[in-house]
Amino acid sequence: MNKLFQKYALLILVVFGLICRILFLFFNQTVLLTNDSQTYLDLAKIISSGTISGYFGGRTPGYPFLIFLLGNSTKLVVVFQMIIGILSSVIWYRILIFFKCNASVSCLVSLVFSSYLHVLSYEHAILIESINLFVVTLLIYYIIKNKILETAFCLTILVLLKPFYIFLPFVIFTYFIYNNFNWKAIFKQQLVVLILPLFVFISWSYVNFLNTGFFVSSTYFGLNKIQNCVNFIEKAPPEFDWIKTPYLQQRALHSENGLGNPMCIWFAVDNGDFEYKKMTFPQLSYEFGKCADATIKNNIGLYFKQVIFLSFKEFWNVEMVSVNSVESSYFLKNIWKFQSVFLRIFKTLFLLIIPIYIFRFIKNRLFSIELLLVLLVLATAILQALVVYGSNGRYSFPFEFIMITIVLLVIKNNFFPTKDETTFIK
C-alpha cells in the first residue's frame, strides 16, 4: 500500500483534490464576497487605471495586483485559488516526506486537510487567506530545501499580501545565520531574506506617505489598534471623548456576554458618527491610533488582559467564510462541525507542545527546522494579539498545516520512531 502511494501520490492528490472542489461547487456556485473583498477589488480597479495616485492606503497591492492580472474577474480568481489549493496539497505531501513520514500517511493527511470545508470556502472568497496559505506552504518548502533566494521572494510576496508579515524575515534570517554563521554567506546570500521584504515594505509605506501624508504600510493600522480597546474605551483620556462617546454607543448595541464586538469602531465609522470632523479616512485612523496609544498606556493591565484572554485565545479558533449553502445543509454543517473539532484538537495539542520545543532548544542549543516552524506560529499568535482584536482565527489559517505537521512529528518520533531518530522521551 505504501509503495502504491509513493508511486501515485501526486496523481491521487490532484484527482481527489479536483473531485472535492467539484463537489463543493455543487453546493456553492457563487463567489463569496465580504466587506474586505470590496477593498481588494477597489484597489485592483485603481491599478487597472494605470495610477494609484490618491489611493487611501488601506490595502497593500499584492492581492489586488493578482486580481488585476486576472482581468478583475472574481470567477477567474476563484479558479486560480482552487488550482493553488491543489498545488498546496502536493507541497504539503513533499514536506511530510522530507520529515520521513510514511508516504500513505503523508498523502492522506495532505488530502484530508485540502478537502476541509474552510479551506474550500476561502478558495471561493475574494480574500487573501488561500494565497497566504499557498505562499506560506511554498516558503516552508524552500526553507527546508535551503533555497535562500526563493525564500526571500516568498517573504516579499507575503509582505505585499499582508504587511503584518514583516516580522517573518527576521525570524527566518535568525534561523539561517544561527545554523550557518559565516560573514561571507550572510552578505552574499542570507541578507537578501531581510532586504527584499523590507524594501517592498518601506516602498509601499512611502507610496502611502505620498498619497495620504502618513508613512504607514496600511492606513487601517490606527483603527486596528483601537479595536483592542473595545472593552475599556471608557477609560480613554478626555481629549478623545469625540471618539469614546460613539464607540461606547456602538458597544452598548453590540455586546455579548459582557464583551464588546471587535467591530464596534467600524460600526461607528460606517454610521457616519465622525463625518462632522471632515477628516479623510487616513486622518481619522491616525487619530484612532493616538487614542489607542494613550488609552493602552494608562491601562496596560486591561490591555494585556485583552491580549491574552481574547486576542491570543481566539487565534486558536477555527474560522471559515460564511457560506449559506453550508449553513443551510444539515449534512455539510455536521461535516464542518466534526472537521472544526478535529482541527481544534490539533491546535490545542500544538499549543501544549510549544514548551517542549523551547525546553529542548535551551537544553541542546539546536535550532531545528521544527523549532523554526513552532516559532513562526508562536510569533504570529503573539504579534497578532498585540495589534488587533477581531477575526483572529483568520491569522492562524495559513499556519494550520504547520501545526498539524508538528503534532504528527511528535507522535511519530515518540510512538513510531525509526532507529536513527531521537525522540522526546530519550
Automatic annotation (TrEMBL):
Claim: Transmembrane helix is one of the keywords in the record: yes
Organism domain of life: Bacteria
Positions of transmembrane segments: 7-27, 125-144, 156-178, 190-207, 341-359, 371-389, 395-411
Organism listed in the record: Flavobacterium difficile
Name of the protein this chain belongs to: Glycosyltransferase RgtA/B/C/D-like domain-containing protein
Coiled coil regions, renumbered to chain: none
Keywords: Membrane, Transmembrane, Transmembrane helix
